[in-house]
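Running this now, will post back.
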Amino acid sequence: MRVYAISPGPVNTPSWRLMDDASRTAMFARLDGTLPVGFAADEDDTAAGYLFAMQARALTGAVIDIDSGALVA
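Update: finished.
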């Protein structure tokens, strides 16, 4: 039995498109400036973490943070 968790941070997904363009652009510009990698993850970044976890057959008992470094910032 394998148990692991994916812990996403801020993710730039299409649902943010409900905001007006200027507000969304300003929000992510501010957010990106606070993240060690310089950008918020998108859905592909988050999916890559899930794929890694599913393919790593010896992985268990882990929490995978996909948060652009927000946890350590």
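The longest helix spans residues 21-34. More later if anyone needs it.
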